[in-house]
Amino acid sequence: MKTSRPLSPISTIRPFSPSAFQKAFTLIELLVVISIIAILIGLLFPAFKGVQNQARKTQAKNDLNQIVVAINAFYTEYGQYPCGAQSQDDSNDFFAGNDTTEAKLITDLRGISGMTDANINPKLIAFLQPPLARALSHADAKSGICQNGHWHDPWGSPYLVKIDNNYNNQIQNPYTNNTGAGFSVLNLGVIAWSLGPDLDGAKTGAQGNGGSKTTGASADDVISWQ
Questions:
Q1: 116-170 pLDDT tens trace
Q2: pTM, entire model
Q3: Dihedral sign, Cα of residue 96, residue 99, residue 104, residue 109
Q4: Rounded CA separation 16/168 (Å)
Q5: Which of 31, 105, 156, 226 could serve as a FRET partner for 145 with CA atoms 20 to 30 Å apart?
């Protein structure tokens, strides 16, 4: 009986196919593709940052509107603003900045038992319900209340507020007259603003302190009254 001879290992190797090599990417082609992707990312990143920053400005505007509405609701309920009255000129209107006054104002509007000043908000009405910041430390807080009671904007600065607590329906504008934020005197009961992405601008409530609203450090500030 004739037996078949085993195939030699060499005979089992398939012949080289040029088409298999041609289907693969060369190193140069891969580098070209990577370079194109990097260029596209570079072009899209500024646009993404712009969209992200616009979303933060929208959030800040909404927060400021909440503060103004809450203070006006407080006035409707109690017949006065959530701060002591003063009889001097408008330069002494109540200003809540990056200090204890801003934290107290927000706390009194929140109506929290044991925290809210019962002399200011005796009914403990929650006129304002801001979210807690993810990072509660004052230095790191953004978009919410920190452990010290300040309400921080999306960029990390506490919101700023002025209230007409001499009740003459006038508030001095913290920006230069007629530069994008209205006239030097505003016929309003309360205004609020954010320093914006650069964390700079109208840092006090003094008239014109922030300079022009259209140029310089104040150009990116977000304000409640426009």
A1: 999 999 999 999 999 999 999 999 999 999 999 999 999 999 999 999 999 999 9
A2: 0.79
A3: positive
A4: 93
A5: 226
Is the pLDDT score of 13 beyond 80? no
Per the structure block, which two tokens stand in for 92? 């002494």
Cα-Cα-Cα-Cα dihedral sign, residues 165, 170, 172, 174: positive
Q: Which tokens is 150 given?
A: 């300040």
Phi and psi dihedrals of 41, rounded to 5?
-65, -40
Token representation of residue 221: 């500030």
Neighbours of 151 (CB within 10 A): 28
Average pLDDT, the chain: 88
Query: Where would I find the beta strands (DSSP E) of 88-226?
Result: 94-96, 144-145, 151-152, 160-163, 171-172, 185-186, 190-194, 222-223
Whether residue 92 is predicted with pLDDT greater than 90 in this model: the reply is: no
Torsion of Cα atoms, 179 then 182 then 183 then 189, to 10°: -150
